[in-house]
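Running this now, will post back.
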Amino acid sequence: MTFELAKILESKREFRRRLAALPIEEKLAMLDALRERALAIRAEPSVSKPDALRKKAPRYGAGGKKLG
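Update: finished.
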């Protein structure tokens, strides 16, 4: 896979120009669609285990051998 950084950056600039030129109503409609997608993604059950992200870090060294 090859890519040309200049081509990618110019494409991004053009996309931003097109977005900037849109009427505010269309921009708000796009924002609503993105918000709906985010809510749908957030509502899906997690693929990972529920304890994958813990609020507290485990206590390392508790009850184990002392180093040194």
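The mean pLDDT is 82. More later if anyone needs it.
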